[in-house]
Amino acid sequence: MGYEISGQVGLVTGANRGIGKSILEALLKAGAAKVYAAVRNPSSVSGLTDEYGDKVVPLELDLTKPETIKTAAQTASDVSLVVNNAGVLTSTTVLSPEAIESLQFEMETNVSGLIRVAQAFAPVLKANAGGALVQLNSGASLLNFPQFATYSASKAASYSVTQALRQVLKEQGTLVVSVHPGPIATDMGHEAGFEDIAEPPEVVADALVEALSSGQFHVFPDAIAKGIGDVYQDFAQNVIEAEMSEG
């Protein structure tokens, strides 16, 4: 069962730039009545509020600060769609002296942040007929890239948590979507050195809107991600997405 965006209220973390900004704009284009731009610094979305007026609502939310997430959930009590897009990346190898510190930093945002968002907003989504929760994972959730070893590990963990959320939130009628982009032309992509192979963030936003409509769990939006997804598809359908029980 899919999720109908038109007329609904959404929330996007990290909505002030890159993929998050493109997702917010794609939701509005698809007919969302309003989207909360959940960011660390609400003033950073002034350009969006200038363009879209009261359809964009700035909201403070920092994935590493639980109190801001709880407050955001109380303020945005009308949301039926939560897109957790915000994340961090370091260029750290396993043998880097700072590997442990980098992993802790990325796990705190990319994994603990997801759990905090899910815990805060699951009751809100339930109260609003179930809705949908979207997590921006990565191609690195499935394949560890040595130059981004700790980031890849954190995204593998966030993907694992997303799988658990799919099962748990199904009971309250919440659709869960896991998005796995490859190199995307964002500030993060630029810092990672992906300029020559990166695709525009709109590719991710458009694929997400389509996935919500169709109700699919895995989304591989760009060409490189699709290559990974094509190989992974059989396992994903027969193991990850299959109805299985423990024991």
From TrEMBL:
The keyword Zinc is assigned to this record: no
Its Gene Ontology molecular function terms? Answer: oxidoreductase activity
Does this UniProt record's set of keywords contain Oxidoreductase? yes
Against SUPFAM superfamilies, the record matches this protein to: NAD(P)-binding Rossmann-fold domains
UniProtKB keywords: Oxidoreductase
Q: Name one Pfam family in it.
A: adh_short
Q: Which PROSITE patterns does this chain map to?
A: ADH_SHORT
Q: Which family does it belong to?
A: Belongs to the short-chain dehydrogenases/reductases (SDR) family.
By what name is this protein known? SDR family oxidoreductase
